[in-house]
Design a protein that fits this description.
single chain; globular; 134 residues; alpha+beta; five-stranded mixed β-sheet
């Protein structure tokens, strides 16, 4: 899939955002290694900590459908400037090894990044036993 097609899907996804508090609509589209695409929009809550970003919505939808291998994610909003994943979303991108992040604006202008550029030194290794941590 071409980058512009993935951005278009992210821009369409933002139309489904639930953002009554910030009025800041964000959409994301994640491309799986098998060619399937999952979209997501930000979903706010009056209790701000209960909100969910578009990027996590898209990735969690894909993961909940059995997808574990990803190629890229595009993120777009209503803004005239590029939009980037927040810190929590960057950690989720690292967890699921999404290698490419496409930051876009509302007109389809974009910039492509490697995930490591956005979150260097991500926390990606965790072991449950003390023996494994040595």
């Amino acid at each position: 899939m071409e980058i512009k097609q993935l951005i278009k899907k992210a821009l369409c996804a933002r139309e489904y955002a639930y953002a009554p508090y910030s009025e800041f609509r964000v959409g994301a589209a994640v491309l799986c290694s098998d060619g399937s695409v999952f979209t997501g929009a930000n979903i706010e809550n009056v209790s701000l900590g209960a909100a969910n970003c578009a990027e996590r919505t898209a990735i969690f939808k894909a993961v909940s459908e059995g997808k574990r291998s990803f190629e890229a994610i595009a993120v777009a909003s209503d803004m005239d400037r590029l939009i980037y994943p927040c810190g929590i979303c960057r950690q989720v991108l690292a967890e699921f090894k999404v290698p490419v992040v496409i930051a876009a604006d509302n007109k389809g202008n974009y910039r492509v990044y490697k995930s490591e550029e956005l979150l260097p030194h991500a926390f990606i290794e965790f072991h449950t036993s003390k023996e494994k941590r040595k």
